[in-house]
Amino acid sequence: MENIKLHNLNINSFDRSHNSRINFFRPDKYKDIENFSKKHKNLINMGLNFSYSPVFFHKKSVSIDFSRFNKILNFNKKKKEITVEAGIKIYDLVNFLLKHKLSLPQLPGYPFITVGGAIAANIHGKSSGFDGTIKNSVKELLLFHKDKGWKKISNRENKVLFDLTIGGLGLTGTIVSATFKLKSFPYSRFLINRLEVKNIKETINYLIKYKNYKNLLIYSWNDASNINNFGRGYVFVSKPIKKNNENNIKLNFKKNYKILIPLWNSLTSKLFNYFFFNFQKFKNKKYEESFMKTIFPFAGNENYFNFFGSKGFIETQLIIRPEIIEDFFKSFTKFYIKFKPEIILLSFKNISGKQKYIRFEGNGICVTFDFLNNKKNLIFLEKIDKLCVKYNVIPSVIKDSRISKKILDKCFPEAEKFRNDLLKFDKKRVYKSETSRRLKL
Amino acid sequence: MTYLIIGASSGLGKDLVYEFASKGNNLIISSRDIRDLKNLKNDIELKYKVKVKILTIDLANLDDVKKKINLNNKFFDGITGVLFPAGQMDDEDFINLKPSLVGDLIFSNFISITYIISSYYQKKEKGIIVGFGSVSALFGRRTNPYYSASKRALESYFESLISNNDKKNINIQFYILGYLDTNLSFGKKLFLPRGSTKNLSKLVYKKRLLKNCKIYFPIWWSIIGFIINIIPFKILIFIFNFFKKNEKN
Question: Of B183, B176, B196, B6, which Cα lies nearest the Cα of B85?
Answer without folding.
Answer: B6
